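Q:
Just now I want nothing more than another pair of eyes on a protein record. Here is the record:
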Amino acid sequence: MIDKARKWLKFRIFIIFVVFIMMTVAISAKAYQLQILKSQRLSQLAERQHRKVISVVPKRGVIYDRNREEMAISIDVDSICAEPIKISDAYKTAKELSPILKMSEKELAEKFTVKRPFTWVSRRISPEQSTKVKNLKLDGIGFIKEARRFYPNRETAGNIIGFAGLDSRGLEGLELQYDDYLKGETTHSVVERDALGRIILSHGLKQKGQQTGNDLVLTVDKTIQFIAEKELKETVARTNAKSGTVVAMNPKTGEILAIANEPQFNPNIFGNYNPSFWRNRAVTDCFEPGSTFKVFVVASALEKGVISAKDTFFCENGSYIVAKRTLHDTHPYGWLNVQDIIKFSSNIGAGKIGEKLGKERLYENLRKFGFGERTGIDLPGEIPGQLRPTNQWSQIAVHTVSFGQGVSVSAIQLISGLSAIANNGYLMKPYLVKQIVSPEGKIIKESKPQIIRKVISEKTAKQVASFMKTTVIQGGTATKAFIDGYEVAGKTGTAQKPDLTSGGYSKGKYVSLFMGFTPSDDPSIAILVLVDEPRGIYYGGEVAAPVFKKIAEETMHYMGILPARIVAQDNPTPPKALSKPKGSDGLRKDADIKEEGTVKSEKFVMPDFTGMSIRQILRMIHDSKIDIRIIGSGRAVEQSLRPGSIVNDGEKCWVKFQQPS
């Protein structure tokens, strides 16, 4: 009996031992699986359970003008977030934050009572707001750094640059066009969670992936852009016009120096404007070019050899019947040569040149100038305009197209076509971005002048330019575009607007146009001015030409291209007091003004520049040989050469400017 009991005991011990061994092996196997085979995966699962990754808006690259002046930057600002579970009194917290964040107490209270471990309260607040909220030391309220897009020049070049949204994605302009280059890599904030999954906000949040986007260097010159916007704004306001556009281009390279639109918008607060303000009308809107189109018709006819500069055309004394329709000139003319058809802007004369050229060759050459197709400018939303195939032309179309009716173009197409005449016959591709630069300073992409095609010969281009020079002299349609000391080649246009509702043309609605380039023999700049629906006087020579004159004259001085044949006076008349113009002069670029041309002078009495604008000073000193350096912007407050002192040729003088307080 005892032996039997001992055997049973040994058996039970053996069973327990076997079970223990098996359990040990199983535990060891499981431990090996967890610790060795699945360690990485389980570690990640564990990290996910007690950590949460919050995506933060990436930092976009900087946008510079051609002189490396900042046009768009990203700055680090605070965004407020909350842990609702840690907020003991949601309504009290909402009441304290409401006046600082300018949000309703109800809206804030709803955020603080949701059953979430984390919620955004207000994104990208101002430094003042951040300081005030931090001083409250509220439980459950935390801060995360985010990048905010800021446009330091406000409205200046707003329609070119566009803007980026709350998620740091480009929505308009260059911000949209180059979004893939500008946007940085997404930044992540890693926050801890407790055993219940609640977020624990800490002051030193760990961030990953802080890679900023690439920078853009533009062809735009901020000073020229400001000049264009200022003069356009004044004209649109003075004429009570609907809108206006100015485009300035380097005709030799295709570089866009400025695109001004009126009305403007401030991209810092783009949401406060109607979306119609956002678009860049120079590329998105089309219009009938009116008499500006005559230069392209004449160029085409000369190039094809169907006319010569000596040919004359009878302009029917201002009234000409074609296909049962009567064409009119503003003034009655008899026989006019080709130059005078441009100078006096004869519709009938241009129509007869177009008729002699023939619709097929006219269409072919207008297409060569780029009309009816996109220019390829690096801006979103460009339209091709409309130049219908010849099988859709009416009997009178060859005449009407020849003076800019029945065809629509964009401002960028028109300035590109003009530049082909200015640069001896080459159609250049317009562009806005010179370089794309990495955060380390490496050039990723660089744009170079690109010839699309040869349109006309150098001989034809020079002939047409010489015709265009007569428009700004006595008897021409654009005498108000004349600039003393500079040769200007230009052409006016006054286009009656089509009535898109009832057909035909609207009564009393016109587009006033002037396009030109200067100096005409070696152009540094081509400028197109468009004023839409001016009230009262609406002729391009009266409305748009003066805008060209002001922009071109200021730009020439700014670029250091002084008038030819300047004669400085030994004892100039002291300057009269000049009234302060409306608005800020806001020129921020330092500019070296260097003399070019023939100057005959020995000395100059230094004026007192105190209180003057940059524009006023540049006008005053263009009859001297002083080398002026402009520092700052606004009104002159200091100068290096004493007023009243005798200044010799070539002396340098810096003038310091400050914004009025």
